[in-house]
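Sanity check

After download, print the first record. It should look like this:
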Amino acid sequence: MLKNLIVFSLLIIFSLDSSAQISAKRVCQAIQENSNETLDQLPMRIDPVTTWYSIVAIYASGTCHLTYSYSINTKAAFDFYKEELGSPELSDQELKAAIESGEGKAIMKQTITKSFERMSPLLFKIKDLRIVADYEADQPLEPFQIVIKEKGQVKNLR
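Expected C-alpha cells:
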C-alpha cells in the first residue's frame, strides 16, 4: 500500500553514510534537502484507495517529526473492505461504524504500521524519530491520524 513512500524513505536512508549511526537529525535533513524533488512527484496514487500528497520533516528539540499526508477515496475503501469481508450487503453506515470502532482503528493502525516496518525497517531503529500519517477522507469517513512510531520507540526489524 505504501510501497512508493517507503521506497523513497529507504533511498534517503541508504544515501546517508552507512558507517555511522543514522541520526534523526540526518534523516530530517535528507528529507528536507530532497523535498522539492519529492513534492514534484506528488500527489501520487499509492493504490486504488490511497493518494499520498505531502511529506513534512521538522527537526525540533532533538526529534525528527515526519508527517505523511494521504487522502482516502471512501467509496473505493468501502468496496475493498466489503470484498475482503465477503459481505457486499453491508451498508456504508455499518462499514463506517466497524472501521471507526476501537477494534477497527486498532486493525487499521496495525496494518499500516506493519507496512512501514516491512518496507523501511531502518526507520524503526532511529530513537529520536516520530512518524505520523494523516488521512483525509470524504464522507462518510472522518479524517484520522495514525502514529506509526513514537519518539524513543526502537525495533530491531530484520
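If your output differs, re-run the checksum step. Summary of this record's structure: The chain has a mean pLDDT of 80.
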